[in-house]
Design brief:
The chain is of the alpha/beta class. It has helices at 3-17, 57-68, 81-89, 149-154, 174-182, 193-199, 227-243, 246-259, 263-275, 277-291, 295-306, 326-331, 340-357, 366-377, 379-391, 399-405, 412-415, 425-445, and strands spanning 35-40, 47-48, 54-55, 73-78, 95-101, 111-126, 143-146, 165-168, 188-192, 206-222.
């Protein structure tokens, strides 16, 4: 584990235990200090991926801002908004980026930056129960919410006959509330839409009943150190990323794919993780060794392709658990596409081959996302989509930009100008979204004991040949 990661994990554990943070008061940026940003641990803010890399919506947004103003971001990770606010009050951070809703006040000489994302308080319930239409329908039922200023402000004036809503500690999570609903310990919970969107895939038994109050806006909360300078730079930063679409693409990257997963999809996968995956897991682990990709990603591809049916066959001739074409199977020396182990290893090697064909300058996670799209479309059609992205003034090396160009592969006015012609770009978009969601569910149920080592750099001899067409065929 890297030293920075050890520090952050240690700091988070320290806060959870209630000890004093070792973080010193921040210096003025003019003194050459780092941009110290306090955030919370969670899928919408800051967390570690399977390779031990920091990620999350707030992490990416802050990193982009820090780069724009020429500073390095130093993240301090705590377990609740209240502790984030405490660090700001004590001048131990420059600002807090923790999906803080703009509409409630915080004490002290703190200030709000520009809003950048919307939030909605929602009531969620167990889908097998009658759907409540309002709080009055939950009278006498067990309902809980995390105790913070956001939900408390919405629940300040409950209607007559509303249930007594139990406030859970400020460091409780949406996932814990949903677990309690599934376990029958709660009948409903009050949650935030952004955090629920990312958590819902793991709890298909829970659905939204109704919204409470008006939508609010998330914003960064800025401390007193260099406050005016930071607010001015934030104003320019958010104006730019709204105008050029960077903010929308970043939000789409972190939230949109999760919103597209249905409860039926998630529920079926969870059931098959318990019944079918144990028979296949050893093959997926072997595939991780030969490809360098997390076994759960490979398993997610296999589930998307065949629902882990080793004998699956499509009308177009692709076959097996990883749905390989005959040409691709021959190239990868897969003798029997209907043999589960052979198919899994072949599909993993094929994904690695595609990833290594992409230009070396493409970084993670975009390299993996683009490789997934090519697994579905073929590397030639992906190259065409990258060309379309470039024609639109977008980056051909970023998944969210190429994603915007993919529908053009089915547009006669566009695909007629491309080397590889027509392709179902929308299907590739859905493929990547589904695989990402399935991998997230697998990661929660099948956690790693240690981070996956980064894949080796692409083989130089394979670079510069992305117009070749070793397609999987769909």
């Amino acid at each position: 584990m890297k030293a920075t990661t050890r520090f952050l994990v240690g700091l988070l554990a320290c806060f959870a235990a209630g000890c004093d943070t070792p973080v010193k008061p921040v210096k003025s940026l003019a003194e050459g200090g780092k941009l110290v940003v306090v955030t919370t641990n969670g899928p919408a803010t800051w967390y570690e991926d399977s390779q031990g890399r920091a990620t999350g919506f707030e992490f990416d947004l802050v990193t982009l801002f820090a780069k724009e103003i020429g500073l390095e971001a130093d993240f301090q990770v705590v377990d609740s908004r209240e502790k984030a606010e405490k660090l700001l009050d004590e001048r131990r951070a420059h600002f807090a980026a923790a999906l803080l809703p703009l509409h409630f006040d915080l004490p002290g000489g703190l200030a709000w930056g520009p809003p950048y994302h919307s939030a909605q308080v929602q009531v969620v319930y167990r889908a097998t129960d009658p759907k409540p239409k309002g709080l009055a329908d939950l009278a006498g039922r067990r309902v809980a919410a995390v105790a913070d200023a956001f939900t408390d402000s919405v629940l300040a004036s409950p209607p007559k006959n509303a249930p007594a809503i139990v406030r859970w500690p400020a460091d409780a999570t949406v996932e814990e509330l949903l677990e309690a609903i599934v376990a029958g310990k709660l009948d409903a919970a009050v949650v935030e839409s952004a955090r629920f969107t990312l958590a819902r895939k793991h709890f298909p038994q829970v659905e939204v009943a109704f919204d409470l109050g008006k939508p609010a806006q998330y914003a960064w909360r800025v401390g007193e150190v260099d406050q005016k300078i930071l607010l001015d730079r934030m104003k320019d930063f958010f104006a730019r990323i709204r105008k050029d679409g960077s903010l929308a693409r970043l939000a789409d990257r972190h939230f949109a794919h999760a919103a597209r997963l249905t409860a039926i999809d998630a529920g079926t996968l969870i059931e098959r993780i318990n019944t079918i995956l144990p028979q296949l897991k050893a093959h997926f682990l072997e595939a991780e060794t030969v490809s360098g990709f997390d076994w759960r990603l490979i398993a997610a591809i296999g589930y998307q392709e065949s629902h882990w049916d080793a004998r699956a066959t499509s009308p177009t001739g692709v076959r097996g658990l990883m749905m390989l074409t005959e040409d691709t199977a021959e190239r990868l020396q897969v003798k029997d596409r209907l043999d589960g182990r052979e198919s899994i290893l072949g599909g993993a090697r094929y994904l690695a081959l595609i990833a290594d064909l992409l230009p070396a300058r493409i970084t993670e996670p975009d390299r993996t996302f683009l490789a997934l799209a090519a697994y579905n479309l073929g590397i030639g059609h992906l190259e065409d989509a990258r060309i379309l992205a470039q024609r639109r003034g977008l980056s051909p090396d970023r998944w969210q930009d190429v994603r915007l160009a993919l529908p053009g592969l089915a547009d006669p006015g566009q695909y007629g100008t491309l080397r590889h012609g027509f392709a179902r770009g929308h299907e590739a978009m859905q493929f990547v979204d589904n695989v990402r969601n399935y991998e997230d569910i697998l990661a929660r149920i099948e956690p790693r004991e240690k981070p996956l080592a980064p894949r080796p750099a692409p083989v130089p001899s394979l670079q510069g040949s992305t117009s070749a067409s070793p397609t999987a065929g769909r």
